Amino acid sequence: MLRLDELGSERLSPRDKGIPARAFGMTVDEFLASEPRLSEFWTPLVALDNEAIQNNLRVMAEWSASHGLELMPHGKTTMAPALWQRQLEAGSLGITLATMGQVRTARTFGLNSIMLANAVVDERSLHYLAGELVNPEFRFVCWADSVATIDEMERTLRAAGTPRPVDVCVELGAEGGRTGARSLGEAIEVAKRAAASDVVRLAGVAGYEGSLAHDRAEASLAAVRSYLQGQVELHESLGELYDDEGDIYVTAGGSAYFDVVAEVYAEAMAADSRTLWTLRSGAYITHDDGFYRHVSPLDEAGDQAAGSAASARLRSAMRGLARVVSHPEPGLALLDGGKRDFPFDEGLPIPRQTAPDLGGEWSALEDASIRAMNDQHSYLGLGGQDVQLGSVVALGLSHPCTTFDKWHYLPVVASQDDDRVVDLVRTFF
Q1: Helix-strand-coil percent breakdown of the chain, rounded to 5?
Q2: Which of 47, 142, 221, 377 gets the highest tally of CB atoms within 10 A of its CB?
């Protein structure tokens, strides 16, 4: 089993994208002790803001607690155990993951409270899980959306000799959505099958509302609200099937509609203190400058969070940094970062500032835009402004889930105004 502090003994090398040459051969701890500055790093780069991360951890923890909700943030967003630890220290009940491979990674760091937002039907994964359940301190719950899923789990878990039943939440889906039973009737049949098993235990209701909408239009919010009401109805209909031998969950996820989750769950929560009403929002730890900025109820520039103070808002804690490597025609510059470096699936990067170099003085880029991206280039449309060859552009990024996977280490600066590198966040994709 690894420990987080052991990551500090890993040695840096030219294989680590963006790391300064002087760090090669140093351990992470040795490099950080040398008081590095962001200006030493190579472009392209994604940098994180420690002050903003700490703000976001506090804001989400306080918001969840004030609404009576547990938080098991989705760790696949970052796949960074050091950031998971900060989420746990801020009060999270555990970490959510998406694949059994991610579970295996998390277990090597001693993570003892995991929700798998997925089904487990692979024999190898189930044998591994049975072995991990020997540890009585390991809290694990996964999902199932069909009777066939329970059948597959039973067959392998019995052969593996699982030391205790596997907790399973029935996943409710929706027409046109992702996974999940497509009706309450189907979901109830899955629940009955789980409750009758000796190697699987019915542990609640789960699902993902985020696949049903991508904005905060009234029709989108209505679709999300209707789905969540179906979750509550399903949970209430399963009352007689639940046992008294473990935790019961009702869980929704996503970082866009957690205010609607709280609204819909509120009445049922008041009448049911036994259940762990749980959010799985994961992107909040860094937030972003694109998709989540427009849909999150707690965005710093938004007005959706009625009654929230300005200090209780999420802030973007990540930015891309790329250098102008070509200025082939008026109004167009090419940057040295592209799809291999920055996310593009929920909107292209947004040029925010430019400076002569990473350690220089920043000035606003108000009319610029990224027109397109290649693997290692971004097309910077300049509008009425201009940039110099060799200068650096700071980019607002959209969608943390497809940012972290592109980086082995991400430098963390003290704050947006203080470029001292205080940490290197290691990812495990």
Answers
A1: 35, 25, 40
A2: 142
Three-state DSSP at 318 gives strand
On the CB side of 25, CA atoms within 13 Å amount to 2
Give first-to-last CA distance, the chain, whole Å.
18
Average pLDDT, the chain: 95
**Angle, CA 270 vertex, CA 264 and CA 274 arms, to 5°:** 110
Q: Which residue type is seen at 312?
A: A
Burial of 196 (0-12, 13-18, 19+ CB in 10 A): exposed
State how far the alpha carbon of 179 is from the alpha carbons of 144, 172, 268, in Å: 9, 8, 24
- pLDDT by residue (tens digit) across 197-255? 999 999 999 999 999 998 999 999 999 999 999 999 999 999 999 999 999 999 998 89
Strands (E) located in 59-159: 70-71, 95-97, 113-116, 139-144
What distances in angstroms separate CA 239 from CA 191, 220, 263, 274, one per listed residue? Answer: 11, 30, 22, 11
Torsion-angle region of 347 (φ positive above 0: left; ψ -120 to 50: alpha; else: beta): left
d(CA 189, CA 175): 18
C-beta separation of 405 from 427 below 8 A: yes
Three-class DSSP category at 46: strand
Q: Which of 311, 217, 300, 224 is nearest to 261 (CA)?
A: 224
**Gap between the Cα atoms of 153 and 221, Å rounded:** 35
- In tens, the pLDDT along 346-395 reads 999 999 999 999 989 999 999 999 999 999 999 999 988 999 999 999 99
C-alpha–C-alpha distance, residues 427 and 429, integer Å: 6
**Residue 147, phi then psi, degrees to nearest 5:** -60, -35
DSSP state of 12: P
Beta bridge partners of residue 392, listed in sequence order:
323, 355
